[in-house]
């Protein structure tokens, strides 16, 4: 009877604000789980839930030693979590930081956008034919200044000839990433973070893993040309799509750049639209 009174009293105090509160908290938990799903953090969460379930059980059965161990584990657990899962925490915070209500317009002049894309795809086609390895990063909404600082500043107009010259084998800047911001080549020879995804094809080398890695922590686009096969790949949102030709690459880049003008569609929804089911994903 007392339990029923508690329930009725709770329902009596329920209001629209209570509903909003529940929905907001539910959304936060859902987004949090989405970020850690299929990662090491998911296994950690299961372990934490198990510990919290064991504490009242051990207390009920007077398992004092087990209770003491569990309580000490909880005490130092927060510090251990921060140390061990620093990459996942950083990724989650960067994901939150990229979320905004106002989209940054990358190209206001569509003619400039098409000109930049043409120069890029012409260079990539030539590099692929010659089997010259290349790694080109196109900055989007998230700034890449920390990555730019690891390379050599250039700040030159995007041109096919310059891009090809940068990646000539045995030149100082060929073994690194070239960063493009709007219609400028900002830097070359830059170092990118490698992906931690252990499910990728083992035949993919450091260039591909770096290209994927930077798209996992930012919203940039990365074009990769394989040095061994000349295959053109595109990395976006942590996914690698392979076997592009000049026209196919041009088409998807135009779609991506144009979509920046639409402020109502999230980046993840756009990615789903860009990626065709026929694309080969590695």
From TrEMBL:
Keyword Nucleotidyltransferase on this protein?
Answer: yes
Membrane-spanning ranges? 14-32, 44-61
Q: Which domain of life is it from?
A: Bacteria
What terms describe the molecular function in GO for this protein? Answer: diadenylate cyclase activity
Q: What is its EC number?
A: 2.7.7.85
The enzyme's main class, written as a single word, is transferase
Instruction: Kindly indicate whether the keyword Membrane belongs to this entry.
Output: yes
Which UniProt keyword terms apply here? ATP-binding, Cell membrane, Membrane, Nucleotide-binding, Nucleotidyltransferase, Transferase, Transmembrane, Transmembrane helix
Q: What does this protein do?
A: Catalyzes the condensation of 2 ATP molecules into cyclic di-AMP (c-di-AMP), a second messenger used to regulate differing processes in different bacteria.
Protein name in the entry: Diadenylate cyclase
Name the source organism.
Answer: Clostridium punense
């Amino acid at each position: 009877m007392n339990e029923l009174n508690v329930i009725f009293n709770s329902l009596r105090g329920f209001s629209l604000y209570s509903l909003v509160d529940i929905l907001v908290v539910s959304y936060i938990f859902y987004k949090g789980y989405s970020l850690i799903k299929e990662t090491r953090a998911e296994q950690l969460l299961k372990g934490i839930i198990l510990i919290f379930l064991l504490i009242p059980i051990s207390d009920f059965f007077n398992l004092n030693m087990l209770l003491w161990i569990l309580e000490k584990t909880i005490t130092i657990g927060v510090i251990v979590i921060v140390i061990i899962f620093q990459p996942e925490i950083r990724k989650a915070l960067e994901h939150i930081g990229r979320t905004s209500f106002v989209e940054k317009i990358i190209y206001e002049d569509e003619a400039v956008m098409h000109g930049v894309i043409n120069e890029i795809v012409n260079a990539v086609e030539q590099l692929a034919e010659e089997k010259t390895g290349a790694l080109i990063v196109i900055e989007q909404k998230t700034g890449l200044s920390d990555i730019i600082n690891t390379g050599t500043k250039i700040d030159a107009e995007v041109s096919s000839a310059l891009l090809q010259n940068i990646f000539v084998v045995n030149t100082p800047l060929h073994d690194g990433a070239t960063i493009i911001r709007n219609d400028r080549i900002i830097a070359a020879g830059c170092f990118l973070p490698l992906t931690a995804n252990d499910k990728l094809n083992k035949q993919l080398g450091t260039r591909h893993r770096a290209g994927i890695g930077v798209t996992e922590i930012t919203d940039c686009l990365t074009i990769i040309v394989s040095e061994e096969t000349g295959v053109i790949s595109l990395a976006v949102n942590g996914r690698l799509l392979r076997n592009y030709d000049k026209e196919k690459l041009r088409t998807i880049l135009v779609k991506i750049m144009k979509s920046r003008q639409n402020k109502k569609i999230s980046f993840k929804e756009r990615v789903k639209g860009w990626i065709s089911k026929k694309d080969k994903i590695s």
